[in-house]
Design a protein that fits this description.
Helix content: 25-40%
Structural class: alpha/beta
CATH superfamily: SGNH hydrolase
Number of helices: 12
Order of helices and strands: EEEHHEEHHHEHHHEHHEHEEH
Radius of gyration: 20 Å
Distance between the termini: 39 Å
Shape: globular
Strand content: 5-15%
Strand order of the largest sheet: 4-5-3-6-7-8
């Protein structure tokens, strides 16, 4: 997503992720097993075989694609974006690093080059980030036919990103054998995808029952098609995250504040029906992932962003966050959730917190580096933060 994307949360620590333990082999083929502490993605350990990582999605994953084609005075192209880790804006919709950055680092890979910043195949030797802030699973044309204002809907849907990937793959490998080898030794991060397909109509006041909820099967079908395309090209390991709990996102909490009654909120201050919608999407996604046809050499992992984010929302102080700012954006423009408008961070009325690491939400729609780090850590190491043993075949 972009300055147009939410975040979400829920569940006890032992149930936080439904990812599987990946055992690395010399051939980089992943085997699926279950560890005693839960399910998770094993971090690289010297000889772990992923030589590249490719990522798709929206602003949860975009490390500079939208920024590259946006005006230099766009809010996300200026401080305080990027202040925590980089010390300057990088095109990430965050104060620092994203989940994809932590995953790359944990797997022994460099930060991925944004596709629109690459100049030669050499720039993409260890992976590419195709995600674009604001991007959707469904096409821009679909939303045009739906009658939406396209101002914030970029023409870089999942299908477009897949075409970018095919062009990169062809530049990296000149023969079918070379391309299959590249695919088999690469990790693919599919999003998250779909959040903006719902955000855009939500933010344009469309009917939830008649227009937004019916989008779910269409979004899932697009994600399924993308997975099948990658498998047909030779992908062996694909991580497919679910959506965050939007009922805990400051921008959504502000937007629906005047329309909500006390019974709409859970014990943690999140809007229940919005979180239920995130669960609805995630269940449909997991059902599709379970049913998708593939041979035994292909591993598809589900990344449970929803429950990981809920863990820090429900138990903030255990994980270093402040209880009083769980639902308050670090960088915003006032109001009870510090998120009065869509582009509240970086504008003339910016209200910036002193320590982003104690906040979950960065700008009302995206998480802080500290929150993203928590999510990534538990994808790599599992719910108990232990280093899984890696047993090559």
């Amino acid at each position: 997503m972009a300055s147009f994307r939410p975040s979400s949360l829920s569940s006890p620590m032992t149930m936080m992720l439904t990812l599987f333990l990946l055992l690395c082999t010399h051939s980089a083929t992943a085997a699926v097993v279950e560890s005693a502490g839960g399910h998770h993605l094993a971090a690289s350990n010297g000889g772990c075989g992923f030589t590249r990582m490719f990522s798709f999605g929206d602003s949860i994953t975009d490390a500079g694609n939208l920024a590259t084609i946006s005006p230099p005075n766009a809010s996300f192209n200026m401080l305080p974006y990027g202040e925590t880790f980089f010390g300057h804006p990088t095109g990430r919709f965050c104060d620092g690093r994203l989940i994809v950055d932590f995953l790359a680092d944990g797997l022994g890979l460099p930060f991925l080059t944004p596709f629109l910043r690459g100049k030669t195949p050499e720039d993409f030797r260890q992976g590419v980030n195709f995600a674009v802030a604001g991007a959707t699973a469904l096409s821009q044309e679909f939303f045009k036919e739906m009658g939406l204002d396209l101002t914030l809907i970029p023409p870089f849907s999942l299908d477009v990103q897949l075409e970018w990937f095919k062009s990169v793959l062809n530049s990296l490998g000149s023969t079918d054998q070379e391309r299959k080898e590249i695919m088999s030794k690469s990790l693919f991060l599919m999003g998250e995808v779909g959040g903006n397909d719902y955000n855009h109509p939500f933010f344009q006041n469309r009917s939830f029952t008649n227009e937004i909820k019916p989008l779910v099967p269409k979004v899932i079908a697009k994600i399924e098609n993308a997975i099948k395309v990658l498998i047909d090209l030779g992908a062996k390991t694909i991580v497919v995250p679910g959506n965050f709990p939007i009922g805990c996102v400051p921008r959504y909490l502000t937007m629906f504040q005047s329309k909500s009654s006390p019974q709409d909120y859970d014990a943690f201050g999140c809007i229940k029906w919005l979180n239920d919608f995130s669960v609805y999407h995630n269940r449909a996604l997991k059902r599709m992932l379970h049913q998708i046809r593939r041979d035994p050499t292909v591993t598809i992992l589900y990344g449970d962003y929803y429950n990981t984010a809920l863990e820090i929302t429900h138990h903030p102080t255990v994980h270093g966050f402040k209880k009083e700012t769980v639902l308050v954006a670090c960088c915003g423009d006032g109001g009870p959730y510090n998120s009065n408008s869509l582009f509240g961070c970086g504008g003339p009325s910016t209200n910036l917190c002193t320590n982003p690491s104690t906040h979950i939400s960065w700008d009302g729609l995206h998480l802080t580096e500290a929150a993203y780090k928590f999510v990534a850590h538990h994808m790599l190491h599992g719910p108990y933060a232990h280093q899984p043993s890696i047993t090559p075949k």
